[in-house]
Amino acid sequence: MREGRFSSAASEIAQRYSESVSFDRRLYRHDIAGSIAHASALASIGILSADEFEMIVRGLREIENEIAAGTFVWDASLEDVHMNIEAALTKRIGPAGAKLHTGRSRNDQIALDLRLYTRDEIDRIVTRLRALQNALLLLAQKHSEVLMPGYTHLQRAQPTYFAHYLLAQLEALERDHERLRDTRRRADVMPLGSGALAGSTIVLDREGIAKALGFQRVTQNSIDAVSDRDFVGDFLYSLAMIGIHLSRFSEDLITWSTSEFGFVEFSDAFATGSSLMPQKKNPDMAELTRGRAGRLIGNLVTLLTILKGLPSAYNRDLQEDKEALFDSVDTVRSALELFSAMLPELTINRERMESLANDPQLLATDLAEYLVGKGVPFREAHAIVGKLAASGKRLNALSNEEFRAASNAFGEDVREVFDVRRALQRRSATGSPSPENISRQIARWRELLEPE
Ligand code: ARG
């Protein structure tokens, strides 16, 4: 590449500083698929003969196999994955290889590779996301009748079902799924033919290339096509949000696995010991997941910061998008795998959860709503029950006289308020945790998650 314009080779220090092949080699399959589609377009306008095209395809397939087998020799002085593959091809097949880059720039080539990579990785992550959703659903089905105290501000608030909590995680992951699908749609645009930034006098059948590579659309502006990393941003944001959801879930499990809570216990296979304290069982898998959300957010900020200062079209800064992207993909893929394996082995301490969920104080709101049913305005009812709760007695231990002294709207039927399962049955609006709603939600998810 330097042969014409430059009189000397790049300094070794500069080469080491600027090479990307140590990490962008990960794109080799996509790079080769793109080159084959490009070669096919060159052949169809007569720039490559049928023989040359065949040699290129055969050569690239050979290289692909060697890379997959680990026998391909990468050369950092050739800078990136694109030039390594092109140089290896030309070395093997001669002049035909030297024709491959006609009408193409590495600027549209890397844009293509990244879009192909993003599409593929989204598909793989969606599969793992689905697996985790299924693991959550199975857990919800298995423990569909287990009561638990619900918390706000980490203070015991109202009773609910453990399954309701698990289904909440499913909802969040479903939004993640939608975000990934949306990101995929935006990545699904074919940039080849944009050249460095202003297209090429070699006019290629771009729609044909798009079709060969399974793209829905082609880019409509060559400057935008080589500048655009929005889809990487969308992807990194989607991945960061998955990380944030898993971090929150982790935090819940970490808290609930303390002896103070005692709601859940991680299986030995997914817990760690202390190097010092023999009695300890630590929730490291959940803690690592919580910590790695920080990395995912960092990777998003990395990309946005790179893009923020750039002028239009390709700038070498864009090379810095890749490690952030690859790291987020790896981090989320492994976290989803971990959770899908860890959840089925989680021990649920039903007795402990239910003994706390049965705390009558958690039904203080229900008691106020009971008064509302007797015609007391809610604010007034709230104050009446607040006073009763402040008395220090359990609400269900108050005598009829004590109730009556607080408000003569209380009747004998006030006792029914303190039946937790009944209290949950009455929460029947869509989205609330009545047993009927939970069964309906479980059925809905089962249908939704059925393999398409
Ligand atoms: N390795 C480069 C990247 O990752 C490929 C494009 C290089 N283009 C260029 N004009 N130097 O962005």
How do the strands and helices of this protein lay out in sequence?
Elements: H1 12-18, H2 21-24, H3 28-44, H4 50-69, H5 81-93, H6 95-98, H7 106-142, E1 147-152, E2 155-161, H8 162-187, E3 189-190, H9 206-212, E4 217-218, H10 222-227, H11 230-256, E5 264-265, H12 284-308, H13 321-342, E6 347-348, H14 350-357, H15 364-373, H16 378-390, H17 400-406, H18 420-425, H19 435-449
Parallel strand pairs: 3-4
Antiparallel strand pairs: 1-2, 5-6
Bound molecules: arginine.
Q: What is the overall number of helices?
A: 19
Number of domains: 3
Large-scale geometry: elongated
Could you name the CATH class of the largest domain?
A: Mainly Alpha
Report on the architecture of this protein:
The strands form 3 sheets. A two-stranded antiparallel ribbon has the order 1-2. A two-stranded parallel sheet has the order 3-4. The protein is elongated, with a radius of gyration of 30 Å. The two termini are 48 Å apart. Helices cover 61% and strands 5% of the residues. It has helices at 12-18, 21-24, 28-44, 50-69, 81-93, 95-98, 106-142, 162-187, 206-212, 222-227, 230-256, 284-308, 321-342, 350-357, 364-373, 378-390, 400-406, 420-425, 435-449, and strands at 147-152, 155-161, 189-190, 217-218, 264-265, 347-348. It is mainly alpha-helical. The protein has 3 domains: 12-102, Fumarase C, Chain B, domain 1 (Orthogonal Bundle); 107-201 and 215-355, Up-down Bundle (Fumarase C, Chain A, domain 2), CATH 1.20.200; 359-418, Ribonucleotide Reductase Protein R1, domain 1. The protein is built from 19 helices and 6 strands. The longest helix is centred in the N-terminal third of the chain and has 37 residues, at 106-142. The chain binds arginine.
